[in-house]
Amino acid sequence: MFHLQNVTLLQPEEVMEPRLSGGSDALSAYLKGVQDVLTSHYATSENTGARSLIIAIGPNARCQFWLVADSLSPEEKVVVQDFSRLVQPPAIHEGPVILALSYSVGAEPIPPQELTMPTEWLAVADSAGGPLSVDDIVLKLWASAG
Predict the structure, then answer these.
(1) How far apart are CA 141 and CA 124, in angstroms?
(2) 12-40, pLDDT tens digit by residue?
(3) Whole-number Cα distances in Å, 70 to 17, 48, 67
């Protein structure tokens, strides 16, 4: 079972708001769709434990998920990350909107865990030689992916 623990905005509201067509209502509807897909996926899953799902939504319906957990099968990671294609993202202008879902899977919810950053993000940050914003990290990852 899927148990949502927390939604964390990884950017200040004043950065996100002007980028997000439809405002918080559009983002809420999108997150509801993501939660519905995750609930359906984990309904019969035998996976357990805490998960962090980092979500970046960009202009032109670009969307990417990064799934992080202590014990995570490569199959689960690929399947959940591909869910980014199943839910229509809200319209975004001028830069990405980035947030994270913290959740647990299993028969019973577990206590909330600390948000974990994806290894890809940590690699970009480490190679930068200085501080980067989450915008910078996502834009660098998207640029390297083509």
Answers:
(1) 8
(2) 999 999 999 998 999 999 999 999 999 99
(3) 32, 10, 10
Say how far apart CA 138 and CA 85 lie, in whole Å: 18
Provide the β-strand partners of residue 96.
none
C-beta separation of 101 from 55 below 8 A: yes
- Report residue 107 as tokens: 């028969």
Residues whose CB is less than 8 angstroms from the CB of residue 139 and which lie 6 or more positions away in sequence, other chains included: 95, 96
Distance separating alpha carbons of residues 104 and 132, to the nearest angstrom? 29
Measured distance CA(11)–CA(19) in Å, rounded: 11
Type of residue at 116: T
pLDDT tens-place string over residues 65-94: 999 998 888 999 999 999 999 999 999 999
Q: Would the pTM count as exceeding 0.70?
A: yes
3-state secondary structure 74-124: HHHHHHHHHHHHCCCCCCECCCCEEEEEEEEECCCCCCCCCCCCCHHHHHH
